[in-house]
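Troubleshooting: if your tokenizer reports a length mismatch, compare your output against this known-good record of 519 residues.
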Amino acid sequence: EVVYSLFSDNSWGYHGLYKSLDGGDSWTLQSDTSNILGRDRDGSGTGGQSWYDMTLAVSTTNENHIIVGGINLWESTDGGVTWNLSGSSGGDFLNYSYMHVDHHAAEFNPINNIVYVGNDGGIYKYFGLLTDWIDISDGLEISQFYKIGLSKNNDYTLVVGAQDNGTERLTGTTWDAIRGSDGMECIIDQYDDDIIYSTSQYGGLRVTYNGGIDWDNVKPVSYEGSWVTPYKMHPLNNNVIVAGYNVVYKSNTATASWDSISPTYGQLKTIALAPSDLNYIYAAVYAGIWVTKDNGQNWDYIKPGLPSGNISDITVSNTNPDRVFVTMSSFNDGEKVYESTDAGATWINISGSQLPNLPVNCIVFQSYTKDDLYIGTDIGVYHKDSTMNEWQLFNTGLPFVSVRELEIQYSAGKLRAATFGRGVWESDLNSFPSFVGSVNPEFIKLFPNPTEKYFTVTTPYKIENCKIELFNVTGQNVLSEKLFSERTKIDISNLSKGVYIYNILNGNKLEKSDKLLIY
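Known-good structure output:
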């Protein structure tokens, strides 16, 4: 009985392949070079990552035909004495078909000897020549997403950061890979879907201004951040971006320049901005959390009152910067979700008794409802509002899977989930926002102004019976349109050039009035 055994060395590179002809009673070394578990495609170099990716498969019809997968994939037809690269993740596409790196599984079909390989990019099928690997992963829906970013302009435009598969964008029903490496946090600019911010592993922050064709490095530091480095764009000002490395960095110029605004805290894991106050920033490492109420001039340590264990996420009320929620990703039963109404001076445990003793990875607060909260756990989504004493599973149709980030698409009435292993999912919200009362006019935006053919009006939430009226210099009402969502684009190409006055009304109440120039 023929048996092969593959060994790695102390640096996770290739130590040797051994062969036994008697079921393992005796062994013969077949080879111990080249380094087929290393990164180099010519087998040179040392080391590798066999702790993560190492697989071996032998043909059922030819004992000397072997496939070994490490970072790259290698093939031998003489029992492992010599090796040839079989498919490449590099640029030699003339000689090799493209394959994703990091191979974990390989099998020969016993009927037709076709090889199948599973790696960090999916499943590949092999027909016997170096250029004949084919990706057959379409339709599997097994992407491992860390983060998700939603467009404010289009209900079905979003970006996600994927383990091993970079940053991907959905436009309508079409997916495109727009950046490589491991994809992490990603954000779409509030006003321009072609402006996208993306990080790779350890905080490699870049921005594209043309939908992913070209990328500029805008990382504020030279050292590495956390594996998933946190950063946020302020929901009311797209020029304000806050990023967490060992300190908190803030840009007021959409990453053209950065300012350090905190002491050194170590590798930050999560950041939250208060939508209603630009001066409030919350930042946390696993074991500590801080808040500034004055744009970084002073920071308060607010961990007392929270349990030991890892802080996984923070979210802030849309109307009250002192109301903040924190989740924990530790295995401490009954210590999962906490609320503060005084910016972390005191904390209340709102975990209840029905949550499973599993990590809570993320949380999102829904604006202008009954304090609807959604959390993502290692088995799915849970929901709670102010009328409920306990969290309830909010998982209808969703597989039991780790949910890494949740975001709300208010204009579509959807909750979107980035899962680690089953792609992106959506659900109707539990309830829909309603608002009665005044709106801070500072939070109502009309742009561009001056303009030529159109303008966009944004409000911090959907307002019932909200409309815009436009008057020319003679006082004539030339436009009246309802604002159906928190972001409405209005065509004015039929209007003459000149100065106009616009009024934005909440029912019969005037919320904002100003000049508009059409050129």
